[in-house]
Amino acid sequence: MADVATEGESGGFAIHPMDQFIVKPLFGGDEIHWYTVTNATLWMAIAVLAISAVLILGTRRRAIIPSRSQSIAELIYGFIHSMVEDVTGHEGVKYFPYVLTLFLFILASNLLGLIPMSFTTTSHVAVTMTLALLVFLGVTIIGLVKKGPAFLSMFWVSSAPLALRPVLAVIEVISYFVRPVSHSIRLAGNLMAGHAVIKVFAGFASMAVISPVAIGAVTAIYGLELLVAVVQSYVFTILTCVYLKDAVGDAHH
Asked: What is the rounded distance in angstroms from the CA atom of residue 224 to the CA atom of residue 51?
């Protein structure tokens, strides 16, 4: 979450809640190219380092009686493994490493974004859309490789009346290709909205008249955002598992 300072314009009081989402080069300049190191890439790198610290450093001294860091690593590992196995079945377990990586990256990015002066990378649709497209393309390729043309049977609702099947097939195809959009916007939208609201109330906290109310509101919303950061990571991951089930599971229409 970027700084919460407000600034005056022409002697007035102004709050700019969207400024915290601006991608800026770290080493000066205004132009951003594909190779430019920005605040977004910095905090994505920090997220990767944080994940490595939890999983690698936390489990390097494995013991029967686990340490706190080992307990956290084992808890996350077991939770995601159970989710993948329960949703996708035994065939989907081989894709567990990717699902775990996806969950950890989103969770770390969401939580790091709650640190003052940080940058929430998952509040940008460019980031979440990339993650969603990787899931979409991966699931589609896996489904076509494993099932061949039979993968397309998921669009043909055989249990419906024959006259309705072509209409339902069109709806199923449209909903399938809309998946990356809904998958990505849900995550980015929730995080952006919450952070913007925090910025607004934090701006009001500088006004003596309503400061106590604003501070209380910021505290409450911050707690809610902490919950949203975890829940949205879970939602993105379990939807990935549901989509993966279409590729590796048996047809159920």
From this structure: 23
